[in-house]
Amino acid sequence: MVAARTTAEALPLQAVEMSDLYRYLRQGRSILGLTCQQTELLCYLIAFTQPADWSGEDDVLPVSTASNLDIQQRFDLGRTRVKTLLRELAEAGWLLYRDSPNGQRYRRSGPFAPRGQQAYGFDLSPLARRFDDLERAAQTALWRQQEGRRLHREVTMIARTIYALFQTADEAGLTVKDRQQILARTSALVGQRGTDRDPQWLDPICQELRQIHDQLERDISYLQEVEHHPEETKASSLLTVESDPMGSPERPQYTNTNPSTLAKATVKADGFAENCIEATRSRPSSSSRVAEHQAPPPSAADPLRGFRAKPTFVLHIAPIFRQYCSSDRPAETQIIQAALYACEQLGISRHAWAQGQAVFGDYPNAVVIAAIAARTDAGEVRSPGGLLRAMISRYLSGQLALDRTLYGLAEKLKNGPTVVQ
């Protein structure tokens, strides 16, 4: 207790609000190492003080005069347990004992005597001296809570994307190696998630799911290349094996650092360093090569065909975007980022999204996904990923009339409870 008193009194007093103390103590108690009983006991002792006691002046100290009997009746505890809790808080430096000559806790105030100098009981000034620690602990606890929720949702989104990749492979007639093992491991990881919101528990699960997802993307891309260009793939593999099977030990291994069109589109939309590094390692699919080498027809240069699809309009037709936007009037960059997350929730594969990004462009691709989400909510679409690929094919052939779809969605909204402006 003497060491804790010396450490606490070395810190300067700060002017704080009692409401902030209540909030920060309850939010950051796990970070501060306080139990629920200790936290509620501190809050109970704070209630015996006045706002003027927390002004930060040296001659005014926040002293609580609560008796042990009051604490026993408030928390329904025995006297020994109350004394143990108070001693633990004093040893941890959260309160100081101010003993009176007669051993009683009381407060006397006069016209010439400061309020804190004639008070005996529990000195709570360490809370004001360590207020910065309380605030940081509360912010850290809030961040952990939000991060845990985000990771909990991300596990579901990545798992759905993996299932969508298998569906895409089935539609293309591709056979993925170790299909049952991958599906079983994905289901096991989703089951391990449970209802826990601890980032330390959820982060390894998300990392392993991302590895499975990235490896599956590379396998499907390779299978598509083999299916569309079997002779070129076979010739390149034979040339590599016969000319230099082990690689020369005297020179470094050659690595192609020029990212593909699919990788550039993925990097541009994600905006995260870790995703950028992984995206540049992925192989381009056959669909991305079509987007790269086949230019859009002149008659359909603008996918929207003059329709002014503002971000507010996108939020109206696709309410799924709202959970990924920070305001009701987001910027186009926020809509693009929200479209990426909406694809995972709709079950649209990253291949299809990247192809639309390369063909339509950044913002028009987000509008296309918003239209698909609106039709999916209306029960008009069974496969959002298949619809996106069909719209890409129609656009490349000059047969896509996206403006009619958007006008139709606007008319539906005008007849509903909300009006699109």
TrEMBL record:
Residue stretches making up the Plasmid replication protein C N-terminal domain: 1-169
Residue span(s) of domain Plasmid replication protein C C-terminal: 312-411
Coiled-coil residue windows: none
Domain of life: Bacteria
Region (Disordered), start-end ranges: 280-305
Entry protein name: Replication initiation protein RepC
Organism of derivation: Acetobacter cerevisiae
